[in-house]
Amino acid sequence: MSPSSSVITRIAPSPTGLLHIGNVRRALDNWLFAKSHGGLFMLRSDDTDLERSTKEFESQIMKDLEWLGLTWDIFVRQSERAEHYHHAATLLKEQGRLYPCFETPQELDFKRKQALAAGRPPIYDRAALDLSPTQISQFVSEGRPHHWRFQLTPGEITWNDLVHGSMSFQSNNLSDPILIRSDGVVLYTLASVVDDLEFQISHIIRGDDHITNTAIQIQLMEALHKNPPPIQFAHLPLLTAASGEGLSKREGSMGVETLREEGIEPITVLSYLANLGSRDPIEPTWALSTLIHRFDLAKFSKATPKFQLEDIRLLNEKTLHEMPYPMAHERLEQSGLPLVSEELWTLIRDNLHTLDDVAYWNTVCHGKLSPPETLKADKEFFKAAIECFPKTPLTESSWKEWTDELKLSTGRKGKELFSPLRQALTGQATGPEMKQLFRLISPQSSLERLEQCL
Fold first, then answer.
1. 65 close to 15: Cβ distance less than 8 angstroms
2. Could you point out which of 104, 256, 404, 442 has its C-alpha 20 to 30 Å from the C-alpha of 448?
């Protein structure tokens, strides 16, 4: 059944590895564009490379997209569509546009080096077109391996890119692309075009490293379809490191799993990538609907955006520090973390680096905690602290009443008074305002921790 939406975008990861940060950016761009136009988003598993593609990678890719909230409306697995690609290949052969080539990889590499040495572009010389039908039959009968190339027609290939504007290529400056390998595997160029046509993809949003591919695919679409649908293309710049160089393996290959293990919130990843390279500020966002409303390809610069992991970490902290309680409660529930009260969340959120830190502060208030060993050298102080511990139930004034009395009995003040108490009760030298946190800690837990310091 043909999709009914007028706007359909897609992302097509190969399940030969995990989603990295560049994949996520492209998925987000396509998802936001589709949703901002009331359209559909398709996930296509480009698993034609059967040797390297695995179900495990495919499953993890789907889990990562779901974790980010980028759910899909259509799912396609290319390995289940081989007959569609072979049918397209037959049409191209009948047109004389798909021709067999018998050069070995070594021969092709030698030709490329010769062309470069002579100052010519390293494009295929179409030597295979000079073979007669008799020669081709003889080579095939001899069992010579051969691949199949698509013959580009001479002329100008143009389109209006939604990012770069008017684009133009002369086909004689491009190599005839290989569409079918010598082992019979249909390559991305053909399979992708067949799928884009059959599923009525309206917009293809991808990296500008695909610009040349677009010129080739436009001719391929015209060969396979008398009146190809008006697919619109948008090519956005690839991410680089802060230095402007290509992303290192450590950062560029960073997967969703790594970000999740770092404690980065999914909405942080989306907020960062949705605005990186655009004129909108990178700031905390708490709803995908906000990103959908703001998304506009016209806001993106053609300049190369700079990706930095540390920026995501800082944005994640800011997101947590400003996160409203209803969203925090939902995320705690999703993550299997303790469900803290709104009062405690509001108090501790400015001290969180990741959401996992909530578990620690929940333990401070309701669990077992051992104070630092260094406090045991201050036994007289903690003995006095126990003796004047305030009556229960604790109130908002209990902390001040307790510390005022302890100041009189020990003569201490300032950091000398407050720091050991904070460390004894929380195990930390810094943290939330103690006058508010103190009454949320179980009095029994507070006394047990003070006694451990004796």
1. no
2. 404
Backbone angles phi, psi at 140, to 5 degrees: -65, -45
The DSSP code sequence of 131-182 is --HHHHHHHHHTT---EEEE-PPSSEEEEEETTTEEEEEEGGGSPPPEEE-T
Domain layout of the chain by residue ranges = 83-180, 368-452
Q: Say if 83-180 and 368-452 have the same CATH topology.
A: no
**pLDDT tens column, 311-341:** 999 999 999 999 999 999 999 999 999 999 9
CA 202 to CA 234: how far, in whole Å?
11
Q: Which CATH superfamily is domain 83-180 in?
A: Glutamyl-tRNA Synthetase; Domain 3 (3.90.800.10)
Q: Which fold has domain 368-452?
A: Arc Repressor Mutant, subunit A (1.10.10)
DSSP 33-45: HHHHTT-EEEEEE
Q: Distances from the Cα of 128 to the Cαs of 102, 131, 297, in angstroms? A: 7, 6, 43
Alpha helices in 37-104 (DSSP H): 55-68, 82-94
373 burial (CB, 10 Å; 0-12 / 13-18 / 19+) is exposed
- Residue 246 is predicted with a pLDDT of 65
Q: How confident is the model at residue 157 (pLDDT cuts 50, 70, 90)?
A: very high
CA angle 93–99–104, rounded 5-degree value: 145
Torsion of CA 392, 396, 397, 400, to 10 degrees: 100
* pLDDT for res 252: 47
Model pTM score = 0.89
Across the range 139-156, mean pLDDT stands at: 96
Instruction: Tell me what pLDDT residue 236 has.
Output: 95
Give the Cα separation of 25 and 312 in Å (integer): 13
Using pLDDT thresholds of 50, 70 and 90, give the confidence band for residue 3.
low
What is the pLDDT at residue 50? Answer: 83
pLDDT confidence of 449, banded at 50, 70, 90? Answer: very high
Burial call 66-90: b when 16+ CB within 10 Å, e when fewer: eebebebeeebebeebeebbeebbe
